[in-house]
Amino acid sequence: MSYIVVDIESDGPIPGDYSMISFGAVIVNDKLDKTFYGKLKPISDKFDPQALAISGFDRETTLEFDDPKTVMLNFEEWIKENSKGRPIFISDNNGFDWMFICWYFHHFLNRNPFGYSSRRIGDLYCGLVNDTFAQWKHLRKTEHTHNPVDDAMGNAEALLHMKNEMQLKIDLK
Fold this sequence. Notes:
By secondary structure, the protein is α/β, with parallel strands linked by helices.
């Protein structure tokens, strides 16, 4: 199985009513050399300007982004080409990131290559240090910029640190 760290940016709090604007993904391996970046045209007229501002894009720019179905097909193909065995979705905030990725896969493709579950990096760290309040983001090397590839990369670096320096038992094929 392959762990794929995903980070998304959106223009609101939930998929369907609002849109996923962009997302990045990184295959977790020792090189962190396999990444994906998608920019998606909004699917709704509804958007929260404050949420959109976090992405660094304005509404007019996002209207020129790629067709969401095409992006999701390309992401599915990238997953098939770059992962070994079952892909495992993992993120910083999987309640948010997973919600959008899962909804977009099912809405546009009627399937989700990740299946029906995801993992949260913070929960793994809390378990490693036996502290449900432990903070893990200091393990990132790449700056958290809200570019989803940068953010996914930093989260993948943290996961590798947990494996290599803290003996997290995880199979990264």
